[in-house]
Amino acid sequence: MNYVSFGLSSASAVGAAWRADVVYVYAPQMTAAIGPWIWRLFGGPRYVLHIQDLWPESIIGSSLVSPGLVSRLATRMLDPWLRDVYRRADAVIAIAPGMRTTLTERGSDPTTTKLVFNWADEPAVAPDRTVQEDHAETTKVVFAGNVGMMQDLQTAIRAAYAVRDIAGFSLTVVGAGAALAQAQRLRDELGADNVKFAERVSPDQMGPIYRDSDFQLVTLKDLPVFHHTIPSKLQGAFANARPVIISVPGDAARLVEQSEAGFVAMPESVASLEEAFRAAAALDRDGRAAAGAKARAFYDQNMSFDESLTRIESILCRVAASSEHQQSKGISE
């Protein structure tokens, strides 16, 4: 209901919006597009959608909508409206390659649907591209972030327990969340002494966490909603020149493979993640440094704030230049 009420209330800001050349719709939830969509129906300003989560998958997959009949009804109700919102947009920005493909299949124009990756919290980034000397005989894997059911830490803990024979291997979970107590119980039940827990830290305090790690762990359950998204942990690790061990379906795993910045495991597979842990532990200091450098290079070329902002600005300028509002003012770019 909060999503819907926000969308409807924002639609009332028609006075200011009508004078715009283009409306930029940042859409972590698609109800943010209600106002711009209504305005466009009545000849209002063009709009650009910047989509963060695919609907209806994100609300169904995140348990905001109960499974079964209710989810099917929600899909049937939302699908026609979403397709029209995509179709009427003058540009659509997707945050993952698979998301872009899906959006074009659902009605957005392939020629104006663009990929722009999200970026890391760069003021907090101070990448240390070196491998710590005291890490020479250790493998420090760090999971940092929300510890929820969707993060599937149980698989990671079981995989860490399976590699307890590797001297110097450790998995540290930095964070809090609904599944933290369950994860701690599993660690204790298994006797996984190589798994440690640390309190959550704010994003601006993550620098030392990155610097004290050899690999960053990124995990999610194997659900359709996660196939076409990029967890923000990935940008954070790449920006900090840290290689990644990823157990996430779809686009995020392919980016790690493409960038050669780490190891990929099948999601929700203890055996596959164990194999990735062993491969990471076997990688020498030079190999780890090279993977970290590739992570940072991929970030700079594809995900940085400057790169992504330039792409967004280009899209907005193109749409604004072609708008009826611009033409009526005699403005050209």
Nutshell version of this structure?
The protein is α/β, with parallel strands linked by helices. It has helices spanning 2-11, 14-18, 34-41, 57-61, 69-88, 97-105, 153-162, 180-190, 207-211, 232-239, 251-259, 270-282, 285-302, 305-321, 324-329; strands spanning 22-27, 46-51, 91-94, 113-115, 139-144, 169-174, 195-198, 215-219, 244-247, 262-264.
User: How many runs of DSSP E, i.e. beta strands?
Assistant: 10
Question: What is the domain total for the residues?
Answer: 2
Radius of gyration: 22 Å
Quaternary structure of the protein: single chain
Low-pLDDT segments, ≥5 res: 325-333
Work out the strand percent: 5-15%
Instruction: Provide the succession of SSEs.
Output: HHEHEHHEHEEHEHEHEHEHEHHHH
Mean pLDDT: 88
Major sheet strand order: 7-6-5-8-9-10
CATH topology of the largest domain: Rossmann fold
How would you sum up the global shape?
Answer: elongated
